Amino acid sequence: MRIESINVGHAETIVVGERSMETGIFKIPVYGPVRLATEGFAGDAVLDTEHHGGVDQAVYAYSLDDYDWWAEQSDREFFPGLFGENLTIRGLPTDMHVGDRLLIGEVVLEATAPRIPCKTLAARMEDPGFGPEFRKAERPGIYFRVLNAGEVRAGDAVTVVETTEHDVTILDLFRYKYRLSHEADELRRCLDAPIAARMRVDIERKLESL
């Protein structure tokens, strides 16, 4: 596994439905060493802080192999940064366990949550039906928290260290968001894993309602 691209974005205006909004989803590759802190990459714009960013979702990574899959399904171009990810990684598994870690030099990242498609992603793709398509593909990309900060650069090797403490996967959480009914034991199993704070609050509320 290796980093294909490191992508950061600046605030740009995008039209979502009948309104325009500022977004940081337009990310472009940067070169040379880039500082990665607990809040994310230096200079990267995160504007929708209700749904993105924060220490539990500091880095969004997407697999270059999954981009290859998308390209095979259509005649459009898919390229690093298109989905708004910070790291495009060759060989990144589509699914990982929550708590699995990526080692990139001195940097340590921990998987916390899947990306859930939104209207901003559909607007970025210039396709109002892209959300359901993204859901059906089950290739959501992965959010990570930064356990150890440092510098990374394109071409760096990436090593996966699998957790032995939890059995909740990224796709388990992705499918949870679309499930109409839930079992209490399933929700407690998710809460036992080191999931991102936003998803933890959501699952706790679901559990309380059962």
Percent in helix: 10-25%
Tally of separate helices: 6
Rounded to the nearest angstrom, the radius of gyration is: 17 Å
Structural class: alpha+beta
Q: End-to-end span in angstroms?
A: 42 Å
Order of helices and strands: EEEEEEEHEEEHHEEEHHH
Q: What's the number of domains?
A: 1
CATH architecture: Beta Barrel
How is the main sheet built? Answer: 8 strands, mixed
Strand order of the largest sheet: 4-1-8-7-11-10-9-13
CATH fold annotation:
M1 Pyruvate Kinase, Domain 3
Strand content: 25-35%
CATH superfamily: PK beta-barrel domain-like
Low-confidence stretches: none
What is the residue-mean pLDDT, rounded to a whole number?
Answer: 93
Q: Describe it for me?
A:
By secondary structure, the chain is of the alpha+beta class. The protein has a single domain, classed as M1 Pyruvate Kinase, Domain 3 (Beta Barrel). Helix content is 25%, strand content 30%. The protein is built from six helices and 13 strands. It has helices at residues 64-73, 119-124, 130-137, 170-176, 184-191, 197-209, and strands at 2-9, 12-16, 19-23, 27-30, 34-37, 40-41, 59-63, 87-90, 101-104, 107-114, 142-148, 150-152, 159-161. The strands form three sheets. The protein has an eight-stranded mixed beta sheet. It has a three-stranded antiparallel beta sheet with strand order 6-5-12, with no helix packed on it. The radius of gyration is 17 Å and the shape is globular. It starts with a strand and ends with a helix. The model has no long low-confidence stretch (mean pLDDT 93).
